[in-house]
Design brief:
about 625 residues, six-stranded mixed β-sheet, alpha/beta, binds adenosine-5'-diphosphate, four-stranded antiparallel β-sheet, about 65% helix
Length: about 625
Amino acid sequence: MSDAGDALSIAIATKNQRKSLRALPRLVRGSVGLAWKADRRALLLSSTLELLSGISVAAQVYFVTKVVAALLASQRGEPVTAAIAPIVALAALVTYGGVSDAVVRQQQRVLATLTERLTRTKILDVAGAVDLRYYETSDFYDRLRRVQASALTRPYFLIVGLIGFVGGLAGSVSLVIAVVVIQPLLLPLIVLSGVPLWLTGRRASSREFDYAVDQTPVQRLRDYLDETLTGRAEAKELRAFGAVAALRQRYDRVYDEFVAILRKHVAAKQRLSVLGSLGSGLLLIGTFVVLIWLVDRHHVSISQVAGAVVGIRLLSTQINTLFAGAQQIFESSLFLDDLDDFLAMQPGVGRRAATVTAPYGFDTLDVESVSFTYPGSDRQVLTDVSMTLRRGQVVALVGENGSGKTTLAKLLAGLYEPDRGTIRWDGADVARYSPESLRESIAVIFQDFVKYQLTARENVGLGKPSNIDDVEAIAKAADQAGASDLITRLPEGYETMLGKQFRGGQDLSLGQWQRIALARAFYRDAPFVILDEPSASLDPRAEADLFAKVRGLLAGRTVLLISHRFSSVRNADHIYVLHAGQVLESGSHADLMAASGLYAELFTLQAAAYVDG
Ligand code: ADP
């Protein structure tokens, strides 16, 4: 693998690179910052309500002792009305708890959506900016999927965990104080009862993260098969080949694997929960035994016992909330660490720091001994390729399937950098230039161009995103590409949704889609135009029309044309023949025919098919 490939696999963290608890404060700060940015009102309101809720439980204990004391006193002849005030206070506190919970829940829903939105946008920013090399590795898709699936909700879970933790902490501390006021001897037992939950909770969190890592590739394969089995484009081929049943079996096998991983994970987590709860339960029983012993020794009164029992019961709930919060914080932090690593991916990993703005176009483009291997592969796809393109020329690239034409086009379009060799614009190595500025001068349409399921206007307008609304200019580009008739015939003209995925969408034939894609390239209006099989799906008339017009339309620009149609290639100013990643021959049509090499052979083969005898 190349150096850049190594850098890539290092940049793509695996579960082994998980960081420890040390990162927790930073992640907590990050999440609170995120929630603050998302909706500070909701954050402040729900934290304050939770805090007050926590404190109010201790007040409940106090009023329970008051009620019990008043009732005991009434048996000794004092007026029972003394119990009314503490009962009312108790009711008010319980009501407050209910209202506060409801408000916090609703506030958190809004907070969830807003933090999710912030995280989603950040993920999209990174996915849209990272080097294309990332898209060559399955690791990248696994991580993208993982951060999309879980990290989206995790900042929010961390906040919920944190708010729960604050409430639980306030509740626990105030209850501990209340219980200690009743009897200090109960304290150590109460504290101990939380320890098993804390220990098992942390183990459970690590397992949850490992599970997410293990299950992502299987989940992605399952989802892919799901899409294939329900996709519109796939539906006809699957039926024609009778392949549905076979793919369903494949799907079932993947699903079985998915379920098996889940079962194993759930069993492990259940064992941990049972252990934690058993430990806490045993310690709680110990606490009550001590309490009974204290009553027996007359160290505490009956009303104090009532308070203590309620207090301990409430405390176990608060301690549970506290540890659940802590667990949620810890667990979310593992996922957030993953998210942080994803977000830290630099746009140009594997790229030299290039900040110089590229000039707009060139007079001469030189490719010097360029070699290239795709990341994650060890087969060199281009070897020592050299060529020259001059402004205003139409240069054609021909060669058999897999000879490296598209790859070379990607390098020239500034989408990849060569492993060895140089691409120069007017003598300057383009590696100096920022890729974005370089691409400003380039319009490229690949064989597998995108069929945007958006309006016709957007399909063309995306060629020059800064001018996506200029209907007049868009119509002009469509006209040049021979697409304007087909667009104006659509029910809503340029505002018609293309494709069948959304309401009112109109599907086009492949050739019509190709005209739209060409219109997009023309609309970009760039000095360097790369057309990879631009006529593969056009009918003969449209194709002839396109090539007759190409020179006029693109006059003054440099055109790199990849095509299998020799009739369209023969008029090029210069032709390069690629074979197994190397330039085999080059020259004008006449030169190459005279040389009687591969070009002449392929040309004659194709021409012979068109003439009788
Ligand atoms: P052409 O355009 O001449 O048909 P390509 O440039 O598409 O050829 O492909 C050249 C070679 O590179 C082929 O052998 C192909 O298998 C390989 N290749 C193409 N794309 C990738 C990729 N993303 N990763 C690894 N190998 C690739």
